[in-house]
Structure formats: structure tokens, C-alpha cells
Amino acid sequence: MKNKKILLVEDESDLAYTIKIRLENSSYDVVTCGDGYDALKKAKEEKPDLIILDVMLPKIDGYKVCRMLKFDDKYKHIPIIIFTSRADDASRKIADEVKADSYITKPFEPETLLSAIKGFIGE
Which one, of 89, 104, 14, lies nearest residue 52 by Cα? Predict the structure, then answer.
């Protein structure tokens, strides 16, 4: 059986590495990138089963990336977890407006992230 593929978009390389290792240890294939432009490109090339998307990214912010994917018939089915340090209500509202499927704030419990992933794509 083929592992599910996750696109992890995080510009903090140490955090991206830590999350990638944890997800790979949970039997997911993980593709990473660190800016919004590459996120759009990799989402279209890699066709991930799920996207974990930081908001504060170079080139294109995560909200715009989410909106572009969720309003495109080819990619709107891909669950997107917004993964950010912004915990305010206004930021959550924007995530809802761009059709993000989930919202997890940093710092985070690894089990919270894994549980959200499993809820969308299983193990």
C-alpha cells in the first residue's frame, strides 16, 4: 500500500525538518518547501493528499496560496491545514474565508497535528 503524501510548507527550516521526520516516522511521504510560490508549484506537481501550510511565508503568503488552491477545481479537494503562530480571531476568520480545512497554532502538540492529519487522510 502506498503511503499518503503530505506537502509541508514552512519557512523555518529547523521546524520543517522536525515535522518532516515525525511525519515520516508515522509512514507519510513528505515533500517540503519554504515559500508560497514553491508551495503552489509543488501542490500542482506532487498532487499531495494533504497540505500543511504556514501563513507567514516569503513570496506569497499562506492565505493566498490556500485561496488559489481551494478556488481551483483541480485542487480544491486537497485538505489544507493552516499552521501558524497567529492565534487571533481575525486570522482564523481569514482562514475560514479562504476555505482552509483546519487551523493549528504554534507552538503545538505533535499529537494534535497527527490527529488532524489522520482525520483527513488516515494513516
Answer: 104
Question: For 45-102, how does the pLDDT look when each residue is reduced to its tens digit (9 = 90+)?
Answer: 999 999 999 999 999 999 999 999 999 999 999 999 999 998 899 999 999 999 999 9
pTM above 0.90, yes or no: yes
Count Cβ atoms below 10 Å from residue 5 Cβ, excluding itself.
Answer: 16
Identify whether the C-beta of residue 12 lies closer than 8 Å to the C-beta of residue 84: no
How many domains in the chain?
Answer: 1
Return the CATH number at 48: 3.40.50.2300
Cell of 95: 482562514
Instruction: Show the domain range for 36.
Output: 5-121
For 31, the enclosing helix (H) or strand (E) is strand 29-33
